[in-house]
């Protein structure tokens, strides 16, 4: 007869595993996975409906909008994307400069997406003015072959003249909906554009001292900010 205490211990382990966030891994494995992925990101071929070299001029006539004010351009950008299932923003130049300068020394970071059961981690990697996100669980299972699920495109062409940077996104809609993609995009500002030293400190630790990084601190920061609360609420409503 098998040992009932051993069976009980196995059950405890299993329930403990269930409580862990999706994409959770031991710290050493986690760091190794992220390092493998960030080496490969940017080199991968763009697939699953993503546009290679998506330029601002492919979206609208830059010369024509140069005659407009920053406020008018903002309205045009918002109207253009309002009917589309995607994420978009108009970022003030000084905020983008802060994000961009920080991204040069810390080009990779982690964000957490609320799911019905716990959280799912996504690794973000800057490559030029594009920001690619890939689910950590995909990196763990597919390594360098893991494809991006979300790409944020930033266009600084009008920054000097108009004081704004335009942003839009493409996503793998089999994996993310617009509200989820928006939650991830909001975390770029949360972690890179923050005045709080502790918040940006997580990004610095992730890049410069990965062995000290505690990924549960990302969830704590997200919960404190309230960014994921609406999404969590909607998911719970869908469950009932």
TrEMBL record:
Keyword annotations of the record: Mitochondrion, Transit peptide
Source lineage: Eukaryota, Metazoa, Chordata, Craniata, Vertebrata
UniProt region (Disordered), positions on chain: 1-23
Main location: mitochondrion
PANTHER family recorded: ATP SYNTHASE MITOCHONDRIAL F1 COMPLEX ASSEMBLY FACTOR 1 (PTHR13126:SF0), CHAPERONE ATP11 (PTHR13126)
Gene Ontology cellular component annotations, sorted alphabetically: mitochondrion
InterPro entries: ATP11 (IPR010591)
Basic and acidic residues composition bias: residue spans: 9-19
GO BP annotations, alphabetical order: protein-containing complex assembly
Cellular localisation: Mitochondrion
Assigned protein family: Belongs to the ATP11 family.
Organism: Pan troglodytes
Name of the protein: ATP synthase mitochondrial F1 complex assembly factor 1 isoform 1
Pfam families to which the protein is assigned, alphabetical: ATP11
Entry keyword annotation includes Transit peptide: yes
């Amino acid at each position: 007869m098998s040992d009932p205490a051993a069976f009980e211990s196995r059950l405890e382990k299993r329930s403990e595993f269930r409580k862990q966030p999706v994409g959770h891994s031991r710290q050493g494995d986690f760091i190794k996975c992220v390092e493998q992925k960030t080496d490969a990101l940017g080199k991968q071929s763009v697939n699953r409906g993503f546009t290679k070299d998506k330029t601002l001029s492919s979206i609208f006539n830059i010369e024509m909008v140069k005659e407009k004010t920053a406020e008018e351009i903002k309205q045009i950008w918002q109207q253009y994307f309002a009917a589309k299932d995607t994420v978009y923003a108009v970022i003030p130049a000084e905020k983008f400069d802060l994000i961009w300068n920080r991204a040069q020394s810390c080009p990779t970071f982690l964000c957490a997406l609320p799911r019905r059961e716990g959280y799912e981690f996504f690794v973000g990697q800057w490559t030029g003015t594009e920001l690619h996100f890939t689910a950590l669980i995909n990196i763990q299972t597919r390594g360098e072959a893991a494809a991006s699920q979300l790409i944020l495109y930033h266009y600084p062409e009008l920054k000097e003249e108009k004081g704004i940077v335009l942003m839009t996104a493409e996503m793998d809609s089999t994996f993310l909906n617009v509200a989820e993609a928006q939650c991830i995009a909001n975390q770029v500002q949360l972690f890179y554009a923050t005045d709080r030293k502790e918040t940006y400190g997580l990004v610095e630790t992730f890049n410069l001292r990965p062995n000290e990084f505690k990924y549960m601190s990302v969830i704590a920061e997200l919960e404190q900010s309230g960014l994921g609360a609406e999404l969590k609420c909607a998911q719970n409503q869908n469950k009932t």
